[in-house]
Amino acid sequence: TTDCVEAAAVGEVCAFLYAALSIFPNTQVITGLAYNSQLIPQLWIYMKKCHSAKHWPTVQLQGRNSSENYPSDLIGWMLPLSLFCPVYSYMLMSIDNDEFYEQQKPLQLEDVKRLVFILKEALWQLLWVLPSKFSLGSSVSVQKPGLPSLSSHHRIFSLLAFHQRVSKASARLLTELQDWNNRRQFMPPQDFHAREAMEEIFFAQAEHENTRAREVLSQAPFLIPFLHRVRIYTSQLSAAREQNNRQTPFSRLRVKIRRDRIVEDAFMHLNTVPEEALRGMIRVTFVNELGVEEAGVDGGGLFKDFMENITKAAFDIQYGLFKETADHLLYPNPASHMVHDEHLLYFEFLGKILGKAMFEGILVEIPFATFFLSKLKKKHNYLHDLPSLDPELFRSLLFLKHYEGDISQLGLFFVIENNEYGEQVEVELLPGGKDIPVTSSNVIRYIHLVANHRLNSQIRQQSYHFLRGFQQLIKPEWIDMFNEHELQVLICGSLEGMDIDDLRSNAHYTGGYDEHHPVIEMFWEVLKTLDSALQQKFLKFVTGCSRGPLLGFKYLEPQFCIQRTAPEDASDDMLDRLPTSATCMNLLKLPPYKRKVVLQEKLLYAINAEAGFDLS
Q1: Would you say residue 570 has pLDDT above 90?
Q2: What is the Cα–Cα distance from 593 to 523, expressed in whole angstroms?
Q3: Which of 86, 328, 442, 552 is the residue whose CA sits 20 to 30 A from 41?
Q4: What is the mean pLDDT of residues 539-567?
Q5: What is the DSSP string of 237-253?
Q6: CB–CB of 44/173 below 8 Å?
Q7: What residues have CB less than 8 Å from 101, skipping those under 6 apart?
Q8: How far apart are CA 364 and CA 492, in angstroms?
Q9: pLDDT for residue 534
């Protein structure tokens, strides 16, 4: 039939080109396939037709023992993916946001949506279904006509090698499409999830190493809903803390910190501490501006207070190690060497501080730029990441990309100027770049070198040292299952609205209050009437962070507590006081007000004034 002939032709072409890409892994071959052929449009028409018909024609590979090791119905869809995915991924690296979203190149967005469904179905088969049906250890190779003899080193058509390459290429492409969806949503995020990954059997297996579920998490984590992955991440952190406590049960690091020199003192005491000690318990004693130790024993609350204050001070742009984008998102200051002689050691230290916060489950409100968070995942940034750093430069580069005149007349060279505290420093983008003019034939390379300089080269050293410190506490595999946007949520907490009922069901009471006390009943009624912004302010007032734990207030450490601060028959003067808080203990100190309207008025005044310890 016509379909069989077409399928055989597609199979032969895909097999040949897949082998060519495998044997000659240089950019010339893939560049030719991406830009000098109609491969992607034609292959997509074929794949879309097969997916619509819910039938992938069988393809027989001609070769030694091929039918024995290759179920032909699997080859029917694996071969087109083995070629389509790497070539399409390569094309996505060089296109800009306007081309992808507005001009909808190289595929229409409706086609991209369908491609997502094809890829996630394929990945579920490749990573979950097939490993349980077939042994993937076969090393039998298939000799394709016209190709060089394949040694054991190049058995590219062995079932194991073929399965791995198709899995990785499909996973990489689906990851990239999810990144594009995060930049500007063109389909619901849950459409990237595999329905089967939400079943309890999958989750039960995912908690154990060397399982199929772990392999799915490793290669294609986006198939699993975010909160499912957070549960796994939380259990991994909990297990790591328990193991560390067993290994060093009596290890406690004690440090004295001057509040007005919190970053420098913490750096001096903690930066040279071994990894095991950093993972253990750290007890903090604060010293005030007069040099007097503050009263109080650190039972964990002072350390939380320390973490809140050091992150606020060290990541403040006034401190000079970080800068912010137009959207007030933080990234390393490329000129940090002009601010601090030991700037790289400080970046490593701040990596440890962020890692310690995440290791202990302490939420900190540090809004990082996405292109910097990608460095925590050892990812490279590309042109389409530039708008988050410098939208004006991005627009200028797009102007060059689509310029129809003679670019050489613009007088550009392969150099870029860095403005470091008013000092203009010229940097060559290539060796001898100041003598290489930008022309129509090399402008695309120039554009990508400029983007690479701004997004990668300028912050390479700072990012490397930050990551080195971070990984002393947080293992790469713990965060590899999250994209950059999800990683930001892990650091800062839930983006969802505050669940008052959940907070109430996990609240504790002291000083004479209980859950049925009239003042407590009034308090919860008032809190429920507040709008979302005020509820976030309240949460920041009592915990130091405006966002709640991702898995609910059951995971808030220590648990939220409301303390009565005066006797029931207190005088009017005592009842005229405002509520206060101790964020280090997630404690609200609430006088026993007689009327709900007074309670609401006092609570609103306190949270809007950010009273905390000081204002009563």
Answers
A1: no
A2: 10
A3: 442
A4: 91
A5: HHHHHHHHHHHSTT-EE
A6: no
A7: 109, 184, 186
A8: 5
A9: 94
Query: Is the pLDDT score of 271 beyond 90?
Result: yes
Task: Check residue 207 and give its pLDDT.
Answer: 76
Report how far residue 323's alpha carbon sits from residue 152's, in angstroms, rounded to the nearest whole number: 52
Stretch (H or E) spanning 230: helix 226-247
> What is the chain's Cα-based Rg?
29
pLDDT value of residue 70: 56
Known catalytic membership, residue 492: no
Instruction: Please give the full DSSP string across 270-303, using - where no structure is assigned.
Output: HTTS-HHHHHSEEEEEEE-TTSPBPS---SSHHH
From residue 283, give the alpha-carbon distance in Å to each of 45, 269, 306: 63, 12, 10
Cα separation, 497 vs 533, in Å, equals 9
- Is 63 in contact with 144 (CB distance < 8 Å)? yes
State how far the Cα of 177 lies from the Cα of 320, in Å rounded to an integer: 35
* Amino acid symbol at 434: K
User: Taking 70 as the threshold, does the pLDDT of residue 64 lie above it?
Assistant: no
pLDDT digits (tens, 9 = 90+) for 110-140: 999 999 999 999 999 999 888 877 655 443 3
CA distance 613 to 616: 8
Cα separation, 410 vs 450, in Å, equals 16
Range 589-595, long-range pairs (CB < 8 A, 24+ positions): 589/563, 589/565, 590/513, 590/519, 590/523, 590/562, 590/563, 590/564, 590/565, 591/564, 591/565, 591/566, 592/519, 592/564, 592/566, 592/567, 592/568, 593/519, 593/522
Token pair listed for 527: 């809190």
pLDDT of residue 5: 86
List, for residues 189-213, the tens digit of each pLDDT value. Answer: 999 998 776 777 787 888 788 888 8
The burial class, CB within 10 Å (0-12 / 13-18 / 19+), for 113 is middle
Round to whole Å and give the CA distance between 200 and 202.
5
Q: For residue 132, with 0-12 CB atoms within 10 Å meaning exposed, 13-18 middle and 19 or more buried, which class applies?
A: exposed
pLDDT, tens digit, 9 for 90 and up, residues 358-371: 999 999 989 999 99
Q: Which of 50, 545, 561, 584 is catalytic?
A: 584
Going by C-beta distance under 8 Å and a sequence separation of 6 or more, which residues neighbour residue 508?
559, 560, 561, 562
Tokens of 471: 């990984």
Question: How far apart are alpha carbons 288 and 386 in whole angstroms?
Answer: 43
C-beta of residue 248 within 8 angstroms of C-beta of residue 280: yes
CA distance linking residue 251 with residue 279, whole number of Å: 10
Q: Taking the complete model, does pTM exceed 0.90, yes or no? A: no
Q: In the prediction, which pLDDT does 69 show?
A: 54
pLDDT given at position 202: 81
Token digits of residue 285? 């004693």
CB atoms within 10 A of CB 523: 23
Provide mean pLDDT across the span 27-33: 89
Q: What is the rounded CA–CA span in Å between residue 449 and residue 445? A: 6
609 against 341, higher pLDDT:
341
pLDDT tens-digit series, residues 96-114: 889 999 999 999 999 999 9
Three-state secondary structure of 180-211: HHHHCCCCCHHHHCCHHHHCHHHHHHHCCCCC
Count of alpha carbons within 13 angstroms of residue 559, beta-carbon side = 13
